[in-house]
Amino acid sequence: MKKTFRITVLLTLVLALTTAGLLPAAAATRSDFKKRFDAAASAATAAIVYDLTDETTLYAKNIDRPLGLASITKVLTACTAAQFLSADDKITVGNEVYLTADIGSRAPVYYGDRYTFEQILHAMLLPSGCDAAMVIAAAAGKKAAGDNSLSGRQAVNVFLGEMNKFIKKLGGTNSHFVNPDGQDASGQHTTCRDYIKVLRYAVMHPLISSVIRKDEYACYDLNGNYHYFSTTNSLLARGSYYYYPGVIGIKTGTTYQAGACLAGAVQRNGKTILTLVAHAPSMSERYTISTKLLDIAFAFRMTGDVDYDNRISAEDARLALRLSVGLESADDYPPQYADMDGDGIVSPGDARTILRVSVGLE
């Protein structure tokens, strides 16, 4: 009888507070996360943190500023090429490989090598082969034009047109690309707002996602020659100081003008978070910035936020109370977010604490 009375009183209080709309603590808590994100990203020119699971931008800094992303451009190259090439398509390295800039990183691949599209994707996305990017661009450009007689340069130019069309198709409005490998060039730019759409596509594409999550790859090409490619992304490299558990990609990028850039993707507990850090001061700082952003993003769901709407409210208290008496399913509302005292169970006391937090009493 006493327990029933306490629950009835608490339910009455929750209902009254819900009706009154007393939720002052929520905004302050969200503001605290914004401050933490700002501090983590302070050294980067631009950054974005995107919750792919909930399709929500958690953090944005200068995401509409036009800039270069160096070799992260190769992710768009892969996504565009995948519109024209299948994993088993055969590609012969032609004279387009000589279009690679002297300062560009190499896989390496050589004139006359023969690969499947899947194999040469690894050569482009793991060791960041600018030579492989030119080969992929030429192969896809010929397919797009329906003309295998095109020269390497002509085919790459066709492909660049397709790259610019494809990012617009994804919803990009302020991007333009003049090369497929991300080298600094006049007229080449994108924004974090545009490019997170490319990263989202890449992580969801079966072939590309299978490549960007690997730290190493070995194969025999179609000529029978052995190749080994390892990633430039230390988030992925086990044993690296910057290895991040749950990482599933994506790509590094570094040039003089673009600075040190990093696109990351991590899966934990059924949630996928994407990060893009642009123009960090150094290669080490792009990792420290990205890992801090990821740490904050995965902590973004606060204990007490039972319904996961990024605030602690009287509704959370009501749900916690219903969980405590078995009227709500743990499948719908994971109880760890309602367990305020950390004792492993959801009790009416937890619901009371959430209620007090929602009105600023705790």
The spatial strand order of the largest sheet comes to: 2-1-9-8-7
CATH superfamily of the largest domain: DD-peptidase/beta-lactamase superfamily
Rounded Rg = 25 Å
CATH top-level class of the largest domain: Alpha Beta
Q: What is the straight-line distance between the termini?
A: 28 Å
Mean of pLDDT: 90
Binned strand content: 15-25%
Helix content: 40-55%
Structural class: alpha+beta
The second-level CATH architecture of the largest domain is 3-Layer(aba) Sandwich
CATH-defined fold name of the largest domain: Beta-lactamase
- Oligomer designation: single chain
* SSE order: HHEEHEEHHHHHEEEEEHHH
Q: Structurally, how many domains make up the residues? A: 2
Uncertain ranges: 1-28
What would you call the shape?
elongated
Structural summary, described in words:
- This protein is of the alpha+beta class and 362 residues long.
- The protein folds into two domains: 2-23 and 313-358, no CATH class; 39-298, DD-peptidase/beta-lactamase superfamily (Beta-lactamase, 3-Layer(aba) Sandwich).
- The protein is built from eleven helices and nine strands.
- The protein has helices at residues 2-20, 24-40, 73-81, 117-125, 130-145, 152-169, 192-204, 206-212, 283-298, 314-324, 348-358, and strands spanning 46-51, 56-61, 90-92, 114-116, 216-220, 226-230, 247-255, 259-268, 271-280.
- It has a five-stranded antiparallel beta sheet, sandwiched between helices.
- Helix 2 (24-40) runs antiparallel to helix 9 (283-298) and helix 5 packs across helix 6.
